[in-house]
Amino acid sequence: MTDETAAAGAAYPGTRDPREMPTSFGFRTVREGEKQGLVNDVFHKVATRYDIMNDLMSGGMHRLWKDAMVSVLAPPRQPGRGWRVLDVAGGTGDIATRIVERSDRQVEAVVLDINGSMLAVGQDRADKAGLAGSITFTQGNAEVLPFPDRTFDAYTIAFGIRNVPDIPKALREAHRVLRRGGRFLCLEFSEVEMPVLDKVYDAFSFHAIPAIGKAVTGDGDPYKYLVESIRKFPNQDRFAEMIREAGFEKVTFRNYTGGIAALHSGWKL
Ligand SMILES: C[S@@+](CC[C@H](N)C(=O)[O-])C[C@H]1O[C@@H](n2cnc3c(N)ncnc32)[C@H](O)[C@@H]1O
């Protein structure tokens, strides 16, 4: 159960069906079963402008954080290793592309995302970059991964987990599909831990981002959700605990840009 559902549990007394449990959709409380549809609407709306909006919203910082994540992963460059990574909520394939290129095209990446519009943009990008032989795009849900146990050497998820209605379930699935010795890496917006920066970041997030979204895409609401969902996500320590609860060991995290983003790491041992 997420922090939000636990905290809000009293709102629907006596309910047992997890899909009826309250959860957050940005600052709104919705039923867990409703959240995925609302999230999917957001990403259908932003898919074709997703990459440019990422640059505008983060001032290009998301590229540095993603590069740093791939450096930590250090995908092998030796040929013939058969090393496979699953990038969940992989959207337009940003992380998978970086991983495959960093390995000199020696690793195989599977991008899984629930949203066909995001995957279509990703597939198109991979085709144009000549990476279609190294990256496979699969539609599916992080909570119910369509892969057998112990299939992958690494599981990555960037700016995706906070959108998933049942985060503990997605973390248990991550653990299930990893081989022994496999690595879990999650990049996500987190809690800013620097005075002053937190105020500047708040002002930029709540005012500028929805306004930029409206100017670029004609609709600021999806960006309001994206900002609010960041504030509802558990902080670094709490999320590390959730990763441990899913069975991962040697769980650590590092902050990027004062905690605007954080990279969590865990191992299946
Ligand atoms: C902010 S985007 C991140 C995309 C990409 N990882 C990146 O860093 O650029 C979040 C993605 O999570 C996906 N998503 C949301 N809920 C999901 C779920 N339950 N299972 C799989 N993907 C999901 C959305 O469709 C969207 O593509």
TrEMBL record:
Enzyme Commission no: 2.1.1.163, 2.1.1.201
- Return the Gene3D superfamilies for the record: Vaccinia Virus protein VP39
Pathway membership: Quinol/quinone metabolism; menaquinone biosynthesis; menaquinol from 1,4-dihydroxy-2-naphthoate: step 2/2; Cofactor biosynthesis; ubiquinone biosynthesis
Q: Name one GO molecular function term.
A: 2-methoxy-6-polyprenyl-1,4-benzoquinol methyltransferase activity
EC primary class: transferase
Q: What biological process terms from GO does the record include?
A: aerobic respiration; menaquinone biosynthetic process; methylation
List the keywords (alphabetical): Menaquinone biosynthesis, Methyltransferase, S-adenosyl-L-methionine, Transferase, Ubiquinone biosynthesis
Reaction catalysed by this chain?
Answer: a 2-methoxy-6-(all-trans-polyprenyl)benzene-1,4-diol + S-adenosyl-L-methionine = a 5-methoxy-2-methyl-3-(all-trans-polyprenyl)benzene-1,4-diol + S-adenosyl-L-homocysteine + H(+); a 2-demethylmenaquinol + S-adenosyl-L-methionine = a menaquinol + S-adenosyl-L-homocysteine + H(+)
Q: Which SUPFAM superfamilies does the annotation name?
A: S-adenosyl-L-methionine-dependent methyltransferases
Pfam families attached to this UniProt entry: Ubie_methyltran
Record-linked NCBIfam families: MenG_MenH_UbiE, PRK00216.1-3
Q: Give the protein's biological function.
A: Methyltransferase required for the conversion of demethylmenaquinol (DMKH2) to menaquinol (MKH2) and the conversion of 2-polyprenyl-6-methoxy-1,4-benzoquinol (DDMQH2) to 2-polyprenyl-3-methyl-6-methoxy-1,4-benzoquinol (DMQH2).
> What PANTHER family does UniProt report for this protein, alphabetically?
2-METHOXY-6-POLYPRENYL-1,4-BENZOQUINOL METHYLASE, MITOCHONDRIAL, METHYLTRANSFERASE
UniProt cross-references to HAMAP family, sorted A to Z: MenG_UbiE_methyltr (MF_01813)
- Report the family membership: Belongs to the class I-like SAM-binding methyltransferase superfamily. MenG/UbiE family.
Q: What is this protein called?
A: Ubiquinone/menaquinone biosynthesis C-methyltransferase UbiE
